[in-house]
Specification:
Layout: H1 2-15, H2 19-23, E1 32-44, E2 54-59, E3 76-83, E4 86-98, E5 104-117, E6 122-135, E7 138-156, E8 159-170, E9 179-191, H3 196-205, E10 222-234, E11 241-246, E12 269-274, E13 279-292, E14 295-309, E15 314-327, E16 339-356, E17 359-370, E18 380-392
Antiparallel strand pairs: 1-2, 1-3, 1-9, 2-13, 3-4, 4-5, 4-11, 5-6, 6-7, 7-8, 8-9, 10-11, 10-12, 10-18, 12-13, 13-14, 14-15, 15-16, 16-17, 17-18
Amino acid sequence: MNRLCAVAAAAALAAMPSPSDAQRPQLPWSPELGVQGGFSRFKASGTGRRADQADFFDVPGFTLSPLVPASGATALYAIIPVHGKLALEPSFATSQLEGGTGHGLTLVLASLRSDYALTKSVYAAAGALLGFIETTGQHQTQLGVTAAVGYRLHLAGRLNGRLEADWQTTKKVALLPPWNTYSLLFGISSPVTRGAADHSALTSQGAMGGGVGRPASRWQPVIGIQSGYQRTHQVGSSGDITVMSFPSWGSGLTTSPLGGAIAPSAPTMYVIVPVAPRLALEPGVDLHRTQFKNITAFSGNFAGRLDYALSGGWYTAGGVNLHLIKATKGAFTDTSKTTVSVPGVNLAWGYRFHLSGELAGRVEINYTMFKANGDLSQATNTVGLMVGAAMPLQ
């Protein structure tokens, strides 16, 4: 009996946290990288109840409108702990577009703010933002301020999420009026550092950029975002469209105020789902919706492909695409239609590698082909040189 009591007491003591663990403070912030998107409403300052707002929904968010370069949701953000409950958050999105006319457009949106943890989950933020536009030999910089309140939550494994209400306002400049932007955004992020034990586990698995996944698999379940260079050729036309963007625009040009060009490419966001030792399923998506007055346009860019792991970090891939467009009646050649879909196929060759902490990276060249559609556009072929960063789902 005494021996049994002694064993039970030892087990209870082993289960209790050590004094050092109990006294170690729970840090409110950790170094993280993330991506966000959601709903944004642009409203000119000083116009009262006039119905001049423009509503945008983008997953993920990016620089979209040349009229309001300093307003909207940046897609990429980083959390940098400073001290105690305080952290810095830089965020960024940029794109450079060149159309068939030879005219180029460069858009940059950057923000730097302070995030303060009110509770373990609730935070408030405030800071400054900068928008830059350059086109046809002219450029303009617009400054503003931003404020936000948000709620953080744990999603799965090392994956974190947040829901945030954000307000931005910009000052009037020579070429651009002042604007207010109201956004409701959802973000996902992952730590950029890991312990020594975790890093050694990654190395022992030999998964280049795959992280610690299934022992018999070359792949790990992740969610990622890609950026880079894409050139779209419209078959039978000399008007190629070139985009360099971070993150990738995907099918965002379809709903853009730039003119609604139909130039779909590889989706901006992707998920890796291991299905066999060397084989993984990769669905991809980006979503965009614009509404201004009585005009609405939605673009859904969907893809599904199979990724096959070769030696080291090399892989090859192939699959199918679907570009779905829904718009106000009268937007298509057949004026009775409100929805049009265009199928396509894709091929890719790439290399995976470890970035930092839980983050995996990849570089790939992909080729996407969409067939012609009488109600919409000519056939298009897009070649892309893309860089991806992915966060683990486990």
